[in-house]
Specification:
Length: about 475
């Protein structure tokens, strides 16, 4: 009998509100996952018995072969699945899976030494609801079950799926394997204290995606620097761990201190980033910074695509206005495509976008909207960078002090400013400057391609004026 048809029948019983029932169905041997001899497969079709919960599974006779369980603690709670009996000593499987997401010991021998029931699943991905997470928004300790899933995922190299639902957590979720939530940002994580939603220790060749994180339950007064959406490799187990060839995609972080945060210090944070892509990430109303990546010098190939950071000013009652949009340091080959930073002001942290010690920086479509320039520091700041190309849009900025959009600090080298497109300048329009640069750049060479950027509207130290070439003038030094 086709296994898919069996599940359709079973789903009908659950969907129509049937109570626990006992039935015997035929199941195709080819659908069972595992060693055929261990599962007791024969030339005859084994039977699939249907029971209500784990409690019923634990007392089943191993000769039943395979059992369909309708729920972990109650029917339809997300813990349903097909279990097959594995003979032999499975005590290590039982001890390694204490919440019994995959392996369930019989009541006759809780140690698993005489055998265990093993969940059959394909594709190979773990659902946190198998481990007891509910997603109902009632339990404030959902991190226990979720972390149990990630622990098993690490031991067996299996990614984790966090089903649609609302999960309140009392501690960080520790991850070392790829994971995803439900489409449409229907997996919602609500931390209940001042700690990161996710501590991502390690991830290789995978994706971290479809997660909504909201720190509203913590309260504005209690948000501190540990309230981070995704903290990378903090207190990682060893210096050899890496986040490599990994994509962070379709993430929404609200009212955190920081959205994505990595601060390499060689002590608490010691891992490496390689070939990381941050795609379609939104950080709304952060207290400190949207994306903060202070990397080790070996960090290579990072791209940020379709990133949105929106400050709280004007629509959020917490009203943090001094947030920083993006901070990147110590990296090689960085590409930023279509990043939008809105409703912030350049106070407290000074810069809205901060780039330091980057070799090869391509900024293609950095848009700042509604930025309030209240401090004599540029909203976009660069230092010790070379191989830089910049294309940016500044929409409805407001000036109350003299400051350039773009500022080159010490040790800058090759830069091409392709475009600074401004729309609707407000406040003191005479305070506006396009580019600023200090004297600590003897090797700096800048080509300003945008014909609308006039040398007279730049704030350049006299010692570096000759290092700038403007297509808007006749190349003479003014």
């Amino acid at each position: 009998m086709n296994y898919f048809k069996i599940l359709v029948v079973l789903a009908w019983f659950v969907a129509t509100g049937q109570t626990a029932f006992s039935a015997t169905l035929a199941v195709d041997n080819s659908q069972l996952v595992g060693n055929a001899s261990q599962l007791g497969a024969t030339s005859e079709e084994p039977t699939l018995k249907v029971v209500a919960t784990y409690t019923d599974l634990e007392v089943q006779n191993s000769t039943n072969g395979a059992v369909f369980v309708q729920g972990r603690s109650e029917i339809g709670d997300g813990g349903m699945g097909v279990f097959s009996w594995l003979s032999g000593d499975h005590s290590k499987d039982i001890s390694g899976d204490p919440l019994q997401g995959i392996f369930v010991a019989p009541t006759s021998d809780r140690s698993g030494r005489s055998g265990a029931w093993a969940r059959q699943f394909s594709p190979r991905i773990l659902d946190v609801k198998w481990f007891g997470a509910t997603g109902l928004g009632r339990d404030k300790h959902e991190d226990v079950a979720i972390n149990a899933a990630f622990s098993v995922g690490l031991s067996q190299s299996i990614p984790v799926y966090i089903s649609a639902g609302v999960y309140k957590t009392s501690a960080p979720i520790f991850t070392r394997v790829p994971f995803s939530g439900a489409d449409g940002l229907n997996t919602k994580i609500f931390p209940q204290g001042d700690f990161p939603a996710f501590d991502v220790y390690e991830c290789s060749n995978g994706r971290i995606e479809n997660i909504y994180v909201d720190f509203s339950d913590v309260g504005a007064k209690n948000i501190n620097s540990d309230c981070i959406g995704f903290r990378l490799m903090h207190k990682a187990p060893s210096a050899s761990v890496q986040i490599q060839n990994t994509t962070f995609s379709n993430l929404f972080i609200y009212r955190a201190s920081s959205g994505i945060f990595y601060n390499y210090d060689g002590v608490k944070t010691i891992g490496q980033l390689w070939m990381v892509s941050i795609d379609h990430v939104s950080v709304v109303a952060p207290k400190e910074v949207g994306i903060f990546l202070n990397c080790s010098s070996g960090t290579l190939n990072v791209s940020i695509n379709s990133y949105v950071m929106e400050g709280a000013s004007g629509f959020d009652s917490w009203n943090w206005t001094s947030s920083q949009g993006i901070y990147l340091k110590n990296m090689v080959q960085v590409q930023i495509n279509n990043a939008s930073i809105a409703r912030v002001q350049n106070s407290t942290y000074g810069m809205v976008a901060n780039f330091q010690s980057i070799h090869g920086l391509d900024i293609n479509g950095l848009q700042m909207e509604g930025v309030n320039i209240t401090k004599a520091a540029s909203p976009v700041y660069l230092a010790t960078c070379d191989g830089v190309k910049i294309d940016m849009i500044v929409q409805t900025p407001t000036f109350s002090v003299i400051a350039p959009y773009l500022y080159f600090d010490a040790n800058m080298k090759g830069v091409i400013v392709e475009n600074i497109n401004e729309i609707g300048v407000g406040g003191d329009r005479n305070a506006k400057r396009f580019i600023g640069c200090n004297a600590l750049n003897p090797e700096l060479r800048v080509r300003v391609v945008d014909p609308l950027i006039k040398r007279s509207l730049c704030q350049l130290d006299v010692s570096v004026k000759q290092n700038f070439v403007f297509v808007s003038d006749d190349y003479s030094v003014q």
